[in-house]
Each structure stands twice: as structure tokens, then as C-alpha cells.
Design brief:
Blueprint: H1 2-8, E1 22-26, E2 32-37, H2 46-54, E3 62-67, H3 79-85, E4 90-95, H4 105-111, E5 115-118, H5 122-138, E6 142-148, E7 167-169, E8 175-177, H6 198-207, E9 212-216, H7 219-227, E10 233-239, E11 255-262, E12 266-273
Parallel strand pairs: 3-4, 4-5, 6-9, 6-10, 7-9
Antiparallel strand pairs: 1-2, 1-3, 7-8, 10-12, 11-12
Helix pairs in contact: 3-4
Length: 281
């Protein structure tokens, strides 16, 4: 399962509005014979890619998947049908899909005689699924706000890897994909962050397919979103300094520090909402 979780993260920043999912297939002897992840909407799901890699070796084997196999046909076949057709004997699932249709993929698999175990390393799988699950439950994207703690004019922001986010808004209000062209034709972003009520703005981005948003922005742009309870985590860069200094503020109230890392020229502080409006589980 941990391998499936790691593989699932390869889809972050391109799968939305679908979830990032990973799958590992073992043969009847317990040897890994295939793995796969879902890259973007309209393409094969994680199970389909893993089964394609495994081929005939999947028959009688086990599929380990981070999210319940889907039970509906869209642009891709229903994953529970693919698993049954491949002769998979056992399926191990981390998280049950809240969007399951009908009785869900787990019920259909069991009805077909497949042994299914649910809830395996669910907390760890949610490290990757959390933004999608949060966005799904709230109807607005999971928002990360990044800024420099020492920018007096609040316009300096840190350089971050943006590929794991669906959309990024810069200090100038320009909006773009975290991975340019990464989502194919699944959504089209406006050139700039829409103006108006923060919740309505995020609802519009959600409707466009955005499930994770990174705001590399000044306080003036992002604070209304934080004040409205719409920012889920904050990344604060604290630049290197002398051993003795006057000090200053770090992060807004209502957030708790969840990680601190010393990097080459700064300290990165990650803070999450103390009382998140939606819990993934």
C-alpha cells in the first residue's frame, strides 16, 4: 500500500477534477507485477494502468489501491469491472470513495466473489488524497498560501515547486496551471483570479475543475481568504538572519505549526488550520 500511495502522488497537479490514485498489482505468489497511477481525466485510471503492466500475471493475484475502485463508466471503463475481468482474487483498499455510485465498487467486487479489505493505511493514503477530499466536501479548492515572513511590503514570496498544484496565483493576481497544460482539456482557467467574495471566487474555480490552489501572494490578496476560513495551510519562509534580531510575526492566528524544515537559505514553516471546516474522514 505504501508503494501505491507513493505512486499516486505522481498524479498530483494533473488529475483534477479526478482524484490522484495509485495501484499496485501482485501475482498469485505475492510478487509485484505491475503498478500505475491516474494521470488526468479522460485517461486510464490507476487500476487500468497497473493491470496493463501486469498482463496475464494479474490473474489470481491482488490489487492494492489507494481509493475504492470506481463503479461507473465515464471516459474510462469502471475499474471494478476491469479488476473482475482480469481475474483479480483480492483487492486491498485504503480509502472508500465518497463519490461512489450505486452500492460502490467494493460491494460489486464482493458480489463477484472478490475478497476485499478496506481501510488499510487510510491515514497515510489521505496525505495524498486530502486536498481532493477536502475540496469535495466543501465545494471549494484546498488552498495553500505561501509568503515570506520578512517581506516588509508583503510582496516578496518564496519560490516553490508548483507542479503538485492544479492552479497557482501570483502576487500580481495572475492565475495559471501549476503544470502548464497538465490537465489537458479538463478545465480552462481565467487569466486572472476573479474578483469578489472569496468563497464565490473559489466556488467558480472549483466549478472549473480546480481542487488545489497555491497562492504565492501578499497578505492583502490572501488574507480575506484566510479570514473567511478558506485557507487550509500556510507555507512561511523565514529567511536566514543573524543569531540576534528584533523578530517579527510568523503566521496568522488560527493556524498550528505542523512542520519546520531548515533549508539552504531559509526555514520553511508549514502551518495548518487548527479547526478545519471539513475533515476528510
Amino acid at each position: 500500500m505504501r508503494r501505491a500511495i507513493a505512486v499516486s502522488a505522481l498524479g498530483l497537479g494533473t488529475t483534477s477534477p479526478n482524484p490522484p490514485v495509485g495501484c499496485v498489482v501482485l501475482d498469485a505468489g505475492g510478487r509485484v507485477v505491475g503498478e500505475g497511477f491516474h494521470r488526468r481525466k479522460g485517461e486510464a485510471h490507476a487500476e487500468g494502468n497497473a493491470l496493463a503492466a501486469a498482463g496475464a500475471a494479474a490473474r489470481g493475484g491482488t490489487a492494492v489501491v489507494t481509493l475504492e475502485p470506481c463503479n461507473h463508466v465515464g471516459r474510462a471503463p469502471a475499474c471494478r469491472a476491469l479488476l473482475i475481468e482480469a481475474g483479480i482474487a483480492r483487492v486491498v483498499v485504503a480509502v472508500v470513495d465518497p463519490t461512489s455510485r450505486g452500492e460502490g465498487g467494493v460491494a460489486e467486487l464482493r458480489r463477484a466473489g472478490v475478497d476485499v479489505e478496506v481501510g488499510v493505511l487510510a491515514d497515510e493514503a489521505e496525505l495524498v488524497l486530502r486536498p481532493w477530499l477536502t475540496a469535495l466536501g466543501r465545494g471549494t479548492p484546498f488552498v495553500t498560501w505561501a509568503y515570506s515572513a520578512d517581506a516588509e511590503d508583503h510582496r516578496q514570496v518564496p519560490a516553490l515547486d508548483m507542479h503538485g498544484y492544479d492552479a497557482v496565483v501570483g502576487p500580481d493576481g495572475q492565475l495559471r496551471e501549476g503544470t502548464p497544460g497538465g490537465h489537458g482539456d479538463t478545465f480552462v482557467l481565467p487569466d486572472e483570479l476573479p474578483q469578489g467574495n472569496p468563497e464565490k471566487v473559489l466556488q467558480a474555480l472549483y466549478a472549473a475543475g480546480v481542487r488545489s490552489l497555491l497562492m504565492l501572494s501578499a497578505r492583502g490578496l490572501a488574507e480575506p481568504y484566510a479570514d473567511a476560513g478558506l485557507v487550509d495551510e500556510i507555507l512561511v519562509h523565514l529567511p536566514s538572519r543573524a543569531a540576534s534580531s528584533p523578530g517579527g510575526e510568523l503566521s496568522p492566528a488560527g493556524f498550528r505549526v505542523s512542520a519546520v524544515r531548515r533549508l539552504e537559505d531559509h526555514v520553511l514553516v508549514r502551518a495548518q488550520r487548527e479547526d478545519p471546516p471539513f475533515r476528510a474522514r
